[in-house]
Structures are given as structure tokens and as C-alpha cells.
Amino acid sequence: MVASMCLFTRDYLDHKVVGYLLLVVVSLLAMFLDILPVLLSAVLSALILNFFFIKPYYTFHINNAEDSLLLFLFFLIALINGVLTHKIRKAEKILQIKEVRVNTMKLYNALLDSLSHELRTPISTIMGAIDTIQSNTVTISEMNKQKLYSEIEKASLRLNHQVENLLNMSRLESGVVQPKMDWCDLGELIYNVLDHLKDDLQFHKIVVDIDENLPLFKLDYGLMEQIIYNLVFNASQYTPKGAKIEIKVDYNTDVDFEYNPEKLLPCVISIVDDGNGFPEDEIDKVFDKFYRLQNSKTGGTGLGLSIVKGFVEAQNGNVTVENREEGGSVFRLSFPALVINKKDISNE
Amino acid sequence: MNNFAEILIIDDEVQIRKLLEITLNSNDYKTIFAVNAKEGLMMAANHQPDLIILDLGLPDEDGQIVLKRLREWYKNPILILTVKNTEDEIVKALDNGANDYLTKPFRTQELLARIRAALRNLTLNENEPIIEFGEVSIDFTSRIVRLKNEILKLTTTEYNLLSIFVKNEGRVLTHHYLLKQVWGNSYSDQTQYLRVFVAQLRKKIEEDPNRPQFIITESGVGYRFNTG
């Protein structure tokens, strides 16, 4: 194409200039194309140069040695150019792959670190406690034995909790989480979760703010349970003793809203605590997989909140977290959900 | 009374078998074991145990199929033990005739409580005219329910629901089962009815409806009526 443009100017421009122009074109091509088309274009442009621009025109004959040297050099430069550019691009690609690999490795190492810690600690506790109990050389008091039994119990519960987290994470990763939407009584669900967590919550003040007339929402009961469980469990672990944890459900309070079985209405669940809140520079990362706060106490895999995010999004909802001005933080889950009024049913 | 009941355990994991053997024997139950489906079906036929504990993940056959084949003739309680804690699998097992389920890992105290409840149902007199639990009494002949000796007003639906719960004490009842029994076949997917009426019933018979003692939620599966 460029050659054809030059055709009109061949009377004014020297064929050497055309040669340079073609070189630029070949170099440009080398930046975007693969090695084979680049070589082809180098050969082609050498032929074009010879055929159209080197006297005598329209033949492949070359009259003087200077021109044949020029043509040979042209071809050589185009070739080297193409090969070099190709090599650079190849090196770049390798670098990119390496970078991706390094990132994956980082994530993998984070996983291994937290996993080996989170799984090995309880396993060590169990094995160690059993060794001590079985040992023939020392006699341990009945009281200490009971203490060891209770440690074994705590360790296995912790192990179970982490395995549960890992299974949930791999469910999310493999994309098999398909929400089974069904009518949920969120009051029942929330109190049920709180009942499961009552041991972890014994030093916290729990407030549940749910309207007596809270309608039923169509959500996945199992996923919702897991979401609320993880958030309340987190709050119980990372707020000081005596902190208040409040759970609220907000919805379209206009009780007489026209009932429409097809209409999605907002359902917002907030979990509010008056603990220490999150460091401002880290708050955006808390939902990242394996992310753990810089100064957080040991324990935890950094999976809980990323599971929350995954399960919320699986139900087309979204989750946010922010620090409150009065201290502590608030997690807000909002879902577009089908709604049904309890009254409409109990009257039937 | 239930002591010396014979329990057949069908599980391929030797550790679980040992755990169950020690736990059950210490509580005066007799235990027999099968390590796969084939052996399990044979032993069930030969020994006619009072209760079967069946693991769903057997090496030679899907536990659900074993369950169905047992239910063709076996009338005593079957308790499912499973690591598959997907709700669908559990609901399917209950629909296939299992009386109850526990997911591994389980607590042995919980297991013993479930076994006791299942064996108690076996001896329950179906024609008992009055059943009492907590401070509630139900007179089935006159359909009168009393709370603290005062007559409790229940709607027909509430009464039907309560009586199904009471007659299946200790047993997990799936959403589908309850909906079919109380509202009819065409309602088997209309869980909203169940949610609302369970909430209403709890308000009337539970001391704290938010922390129910009697009507227990089995997440994603159904409800269980417990009298403690």
C-alpha cells in the first residue's frame, strides 16, 4: 500500500528513500504480527522495491552493483528487524506469564500459610492431649484430664469450622453454588443462627431488631444462614468482650404496598457492632480471599468474609462494610427479593 | 426400657464402627455390623434389628438405593449417617423412608438422643387420647388443646399441624411432607404457608417463640418436634 503511494513520487524521491519507508512499514508490522507474516512482508517489500523503484522499472533486473547491494542490505535489515521484534515480544510474553505465576504463588502461599496454621494447630492440640492422657510415665490429675478433654473438643470444633469454610470456598470456586430460592422467615433464621453461636456470644450484648410484621422473602435459606453465621461469628471474634452486636432487617415498611408476586423489593440486613471498627486503609480489602488484617489476632484463614461476599452475590445481592462515626462497623447486605406478606397467608 | 435393643450399623469406615460400638454398648444397646450394602441387606433380613444406622456413602451401592430396598419390608426406624450434608441428599433420604439423619461429624450425645426418640416412637401407643408436653396438653378425641390448663384457641390448620408434629415426636418432617399432610398434595411446594403457620403456632405454644423448645427448625430440610 505504502509502496503504491510512493509510486507517484518516484520521480521526485530517490529509491533509497522508498527503501527506508518500506523498512519502517516492515518494522511496524513486526510489532503486531507473528514471525511468518513479517518474514513474508520483508521478502515482498524487497521484491516491490526492486520491481517498481529500482531502475529499470517493472523488471527484477538490477543494473549497477550499488543498487544490488542496497537491495541486499534492505532485505537483511528488514529480516533482522522482524526477528528482533519477535524475540522481544516473546520475552515480554514469558515475563507476563511469570508475573501471573508469581501472583498465583503468592495467593497459594497465603493459603498454605493460613491453612497449615489453622489446621495444624488443632491437630497438634488433639494429638498432644491424647499423648499426655495415654502416657504411662506421668500421672495427671482428674482435673487436668478434664481440661485436656475440653481442649480436644475445642480443637475439633475449630477444625470442623475451618473444613466447613474450605468446602464452602471450593463450592464457590468451582461455580456449583446454585441458590435454591425459597420463602424465608428471616426472624426464625436469625434467631436460629444466634442459637448455634450462643457459646461464642456469651460475653456480647445481642440486639435483634426485627419488625413483628416482617414479610417472608424469597432467598436461599442455607446460604443466608451461612452468611449471617460468618458475619456474627466474625463480630464475636473481633470485637472486645461486652461489645454490642445488633442485627436489623429493613424492608419496604409501607405495609400496604401493593402485593405483586413478581416484583423484587429490597431486603436489607445490617449487622452493626460498637467494637473498634476496621483500619481505614484496609477496609476495602476485607472481602478479598485470604486477606487478614495486619494486626489481627492469630487464627482465621481470611475465608469467612470472602465466602459471605460469594454467597451474597450468588443471590444477586451485594454486601458493604463501613466504619461507624460512633465507633465500630456495620456490614450491610442488600438483596432484591420477592416478598410475601404474612397477613395475606394467615387469613386464608 | 429400650435397653438391649439390637442396632445394625451399616458403615464402611472402621473408625466410625468402633466409635459406635463402644458408645452404643456402653449405653446397653446390642450392636451388629455390616461393612457394605450387600452385607447390610442380608444382616437386616437375618437379624431383624430394632433400628438400623445406615451410612449413605457405601462402597458397593448408593445408600439411597439401600434405603429404598430396606423400606420394601423393614418397618423399624432407620437413622441416616452421612458426610454429604447437602440438604437435597437429606431430604431425599427422608422421603425414601429414613426416620432421622445425622451428618458427620456428629456428637454421640446427639446420636443417643435420636436413637432414644426413634425407639420411643416404636412403642408409642397410637391410640393415646391425650398427649402432654411441657405445659401443653392435647385431647385428640375432643380436639381441645390446653396451655397451663386454659383452653388454647387454635385454627383448624394450626391444630392439624400441631397434631402431626406431636404424633411424630423426635422425627424430622420435611417441608414437603408437612405441606402435603396439612394442606394437601397441590401445596407441596408452597413453603410460605408452613413458615407462617409454624411462626403462629410457636407464638401460641412456645414460651419464647424466638428460642423454640418444641418446634425445632432443621435448616433447609424441615422441622422436628421435640419434647426434651
Could you explain the architecture of this structure?
The complex is a heterodimer of chains A (348) and B (228). Chain A has 348 residues and is α+β, with helices and mostly antiparallel strands. Chain A contains 9 helices and 7 strands, in the order αααααβαββαββαββα. Chain A has 2 domains: 1-176, no CATH class; 182-346, Heat Shock Protein 90, CATH 3.30.565.10. In chain A, 55% of the residues lie in helices and 14% in strands. In chain A, strands 1, 2, 3, 4, 5, 6 and 7 form a 7-stranded mixed sheet that branches. Chain A is elongated and about 105 Å long. Chain B is an alpha/beta fold and 228 residues long. Chain B is 41% helix and 21% strand. Chain B contains 8 helices and 12 strands. A 5-stranded parallel sheet of chain B has the order 2-1-3-4-5, sandwiched between helices. A 4-stranded antiparallel sheet of chain B has the order 6-7-8-9, with helices on one face. In chain B, strand 6 and strand 7 form a beta hairpin. The mean pLDDT of chain B is 90. Chain A binds chain B through residues 156, 160, 180, 182-185, 187-188, 191-192, 195, 208, 216, 221-222, 225, 340, 342, 345-346, and chain B through 87, 105, 191-193, 195-200, 210-211, 217, 219-220.
Observed structural traits:
heterodimer; A: 348 residues; alpha+beta; Heat Shock Protein 90; 2 domains; 7 strands; B: alpha/beta; Arc Repressor Mutant, subunit A; five-stranded parallel sheet; 12 strands; 21% strand
Number of domains of chain B: 2
- The number of helical elements of chain A comes to 9
Series of secondary-structure elements of chain B, N-terminal to C-terminal: EHEHEHEHEHEEEEHEHHEE
Shape of chain B: globular
Distance between the termini of chain B: 17 Å
Tally of helical segments of chain B? 8
Strand tally of chain B is 12
